[in-house]
Amino acid sequence: MEIRDTMLPVLGPKGGEEEINALHEVIESGWWGKGPKVAEFEKTFAEMVGAKYAVAVTSNSHGQDLVMKALGIRGRDIINPTISFIATAMIPLWNDCTSNIVDVDRRTLNLDPDDVKKHLKPDTDMMIVVNMAGVPAPIDEIREFYDGFILEDCAHSCYTEGAGLKGDAAVWSFQAVKTMPCGDGGMITTDDEALYTKLKDMTWFGVSSTWSRSQGASGKPGYAWDYEVDHVGYKCYMIDLQAAICLEQMKKLPDNLAFRRHIQERYNDELSEFIETPVWSDTVQYYCSRVPKEHRDSLIDYLADKKIHTSVHFKPLHKYEVLKQNREYPVADDEWLKLISLPVHNRMVEDDIDYVIHWVREYFNKL
Ligand SMILES: Cc1ncc(COP(=O)(O)O)c(C=O)c1O
């Protein structure tokens, strides 16, 4: 097979006329900030997830931070998994908390309930539980011995049936390479009305939205310019330009996920004699295959030569200097050296899948 001219990215967003038209409509409307599109997106997203409330924010990371701030969690212990994006271990540090990083289950790469139990502390106030690559985390098992706050990180599970409903709140990501991207954006969902009410105003300095105040919220005609502020707030609300893209991406989500699952199926079927295939994921946020350690880096280089980008999801977080812990991680330290993520995204076409399969097979056949 001939080597292609252009690089095949490992991840990437796909938009089209629908997103362009939606952006055009918002630009023409004269209301670019947080307004009717955000309200519509919050409502439809909450319905999809089956949560009572949704608050749209600038990112999953800001969403996690805001939940900690709304709950007043400061200087406490927060448990999170070592196989994850750095956000989940670093955000506790933004709030002067200890990031108590635990080991993962060998097969799912989700946090391991036994290790959680072992490292639970009297001041553990929150657990950030990631559905790694879209595979549901063992929240039921954790609930058997922990009744504190569980923040379900659904950055990779948009959307699998039941995701976001087992924790006390869930955070979602619409960052550029996620399954429903808008460039950058996030959502917090919860059934807790008091938490929701607090979160909503905290996205903008504790001030209620200008959109609602322009819609006669005061009961008087005209723009209600005055507002009360009784708690500290931040600036992390989603704007209509982002929500307009998300709403279009949401309509395309079923087809986009079906195609991602098709890629997963083809890799599973046609590469399983060479690679350890990942646990089935309904979102296939990443296709985290595993190969023998001695081949991982050379396969990455080999595929790069063939113009195929791959990645590693993820280098264990306890390996970063800023997050160093004083303990052993036998599973993550062993498994991560085998991890290689193959391209999965909605810009791919059937020829791209053939191309990846061909060169992975070639690599192993030539050994
Ligand atoms: C597990 C996990 N949590 C949180 C984030 C952060 O999401 P965002 O970029 O929307 O802040 C990511 C980003 O990739 C992630 O993978």
Describe this structure in words.
This protein is an alpha/beta fold. It is built from twelve helices and nine strands. The strands form two sheets. A seven-stranded mixed β-sheet has the order 1-7-6-5-4-2-3, with helices on both faces. The mean pLDDT is 96. Residues 59-61, 84-85, 87-88, 130, 153, 155-156, 173, 175, 186 line the site of pyridoxal-5'-phosphate.
Structural class: alpha/beta
Instruction: Give a count of the beta strands, DSSP E runs of length 2 or more.
Output: 9
Largest sheet, order of strands side by side?
A: 1-7-6-5-4-2-3
Order of helices and strands: HHEHEHEHEHEEEHHHEHHEH
Considering the chains and any ligands shown, give keywords for the structure.
367 residues; alpha/beta; two-stranded antiparallel sheet; 12 helices; 12% strand; binds pyridoxal-5'-phosphate
Task: Please give a quick description of this structure.
The chain is an alpha/beta fold and 367 residues long.
Q: What's the layout of helices and strands?
A:
Blueprint: H1 17-29, H2 36-49, E1 53-57, H3 60-71, E2 77-81, H4 87-94, E3 98-102, H5 113-119, E4 124-130, H6 139-143, E5 149-153, E6 169-173, E7 186-190, H7 193-202, H8 210-214, H9 240-271, E8 287-290, H10 293-305, H11 330-335, E9 339-342, H12 350-365
Parallel strand pairs: 2-3, 2-4, 4-5, 5-6
Antiparallel strand pairs: 1-7, 6-7, 8-9
Helix pairs in contact: 1-9, 2-9, 3-4, 3-7, 9-12
The structure holds pyridoxal-5'-phosphate.
